[in-house]
Amino acid sequence: MPGPLTEAQIADYDSQGFLLASSLFDADEIELLRRSAKEDKRLDDHAFGRDDGEGGTVRLSVWNHPGNGIYGAFARCNRLVQRAEQLLRDEPYHYHSKMIMKDARVGGAWAWHQDYGYWYGNGVLTPNLVSCFIAVDPATRENGCLQVIRGSHACGRVHHQLTGQQAGADPERVAEILKRFELVHVEMNPGDVLFFHSNLLHRSDQNHSENPRWSMICCYNAKSNDPYKESHHPRYTPLDRLPDSAVREIGGQRFEDTDVHQNDSQGQSMAWLDPNRDASATSLKPTSKDANN
Ligand SMILES: O=C(O)CCC(=O)C(=O)O
């Protein structure tokens, strides 16, 4: 089992705004997640789509509490939570998780944005949050891997506006940032995890390939950054950390339990997000282009 992050890795994260951990989950573990997700009707039932402003639609499901099932085993396992703690330098709590279902041929694009650009309006005072992007399928240039701008978290929060149904960072500013900072395509294998700062600019292309690009993203906020007001994502809630072995144990049980799809006891505790309550993006002002339409 991989140990904690080294000082050098933490320093890398601080300067680049992201850190790629290769094979943080092994092939068996990630296959448990992949199979669970692809067979999970609840993900479809709770999925919502957002117009990507490029003629496609992004599809995702979001839940606020990690729960006791396989998704919770990933979000609560020591491997992720310990790293989040090291990067936040504070006790992490689960802010939400989501499954990004970027399907073959039709998966939509994500505009340049910062997660903190979405979350600022939720009463979160500092950008001391970290997102952990777990590759469920291989993520390549062809199927729309994540793109990041190295070091862009240092630019601070960029103004975000709504284009179509997606919030994006001010395009003029992003264009200038791209002249000075490096664009990185983060190609990943299943089980790799990208940790990234909430002010890191990131986007992804549509998926025109024959291969799906699903990923689960677990987002953690620092305890000391407890939002000052209620929103559609939780305020500080202690995280019940699990040993790393829980991924295999809970994932294995899922497939032994033939009633799991009918008996949704694992899902009850997750607080799936109703898309109509997801005001992170939609509370933003539309661009003048949209306003004229
Ligand atoms: O999966 C992607 O390509 C991007 C997802 C993302 O940026 C987000 O959920 O905020």
User: What is the CATH T-level topology?
Assistant: Jelly Rolls
Please tally the β strands and state the result: 13
Residue runs with pLDDT of under 50 for 5 or more positions: 259-264, 287-293
Largest sheet: 7 strands, antiparallel
Order of strands across the widest beta sheet? 1-11-6-13-4-3-2
Overall tally of structural domains: 1
| Mean pLDDT across all amino acids | 91
CATH superfamily: q2cbj1_9rhob like domain
| Structural class by sheet pairing and helices | alpha+beta
Percent of sequence in beta strands: 15-25%
Ligands and ions found: 2-oxoglutaric acid
What is the approximate shape?
A: globular
Could you describe the 3D structure shown?
The chain is of the alpha+beta class. It has one domain (7-292): Sandwich (Jelly Rolls), CATH 2.60.120.620. It is built from 11 helices and 13 strands. It has a 7-stranded antiparallel beta sheet with strand order 1-11-6-13-4-3-2. A 4-stranded antiparallel beta sheet has the order 5-12-7-10. A hairpin with a 5-residue loop joins β2 and β3 (57-63). α2 (27-39) crosses α8. The longest helix is centred in the first third of the chain and has 13 residues, at 27-39. Residues 98, 100, 110, 115, 146, 202, 204, 215, 217 line the site of 2-oxoglutaric acid.
